Amino acid sequence: MAQPWRLVIDDIDIDLPEALPDWDYQMDLHIRRAVRVDLDRARQESGLPAGTVLTLAAVWTATGSNLSGPAQQVRLAEAGTATVELDVRLIGADLGGLLLLDTALLLAERRTDGRPSSPRRAGSVLWSDRAALRLQGDAPQFPMAVIDFAKTSFPDSAAWHLQISGGLESATMGSLLLLVNEHNVVTSTAFQNAAKPRPIDRVVLSAVYADAARIMIEHALAHDDFTEDADFPEGSLGATLLSLFDQLFPGQSITDVRLRHRQSPALFASDLQAAVKIFEVST
What we know:
By secondary structure, this protein is α+β, with helices and mostly antiparallel strands. The chain has two domains: 6-134, Sandwich (Immunoglobulin-like); 144-276, no CATH class. Helices cover 27% and strands 29% of the residues. It contains seven helices and eleven strands. It has a four-stranded antiparallel beta sheet. Helix 4 (199-221) packs across helix 7 (265-276). The longest helix is centred in the last third of the chain and has 23 residues, at 199-221. The radius of gyration is 24 Å and the shape is elongated. The model has no long low-confidence stretch (mean pLDDT 88).
């Protein structure tokens, strides 16, 4: 009997939502759930001898970063019923995209004394379930850092800067970095409050995302090899930019948008504002 995952924000548990539209890479996640395991029944119905050691394990996978890892493992050797409290903290910089949370009851050790049809290999799955949390929607998401612009070549009073490096074949996570000026209190505070943004924070975040989308699309259009037929590796900057282009300009060709950008940059800027739905209130 597994309780639903709960998201912990400011020491308050809430039901795990389907999506966190205001999440960013500075935001770590704290989630937990309780799982009640009838160990005797699990062994009996799996054809395993009494006393077989089992493991309840939780594993996370993030599609945006292509990373995964163990969240928590609990060894279960006792008889009767056990209630396991899974309490997991995930680093925001490791996440992105769709976060998958898999919980499974596993055979902890290899067994050779069970029934012929019973599981034998360590790691055999006796039960599992999966939950999902979308950490980004249409807005582009990427690693970010809050720094002092006065110690860089950027203007001291600039609020943010999106840094793009490498070619279209480069990995997205190593090619994009959003830098936020720590001395711009309005912007840095908006990102600190991304989990529970105030109205002013939503306006700032919307402006940053719109500007980041513009920079990314313009960067893509500047490359002649950025075309519909391009076959960029999964997880590459080119693949990310193609995905973003399809989200912002569905049904439009890259050639047409590139020409509009070159011939009428003001109209292109307005089209992009409409595409990212700048300043719209999330529902």
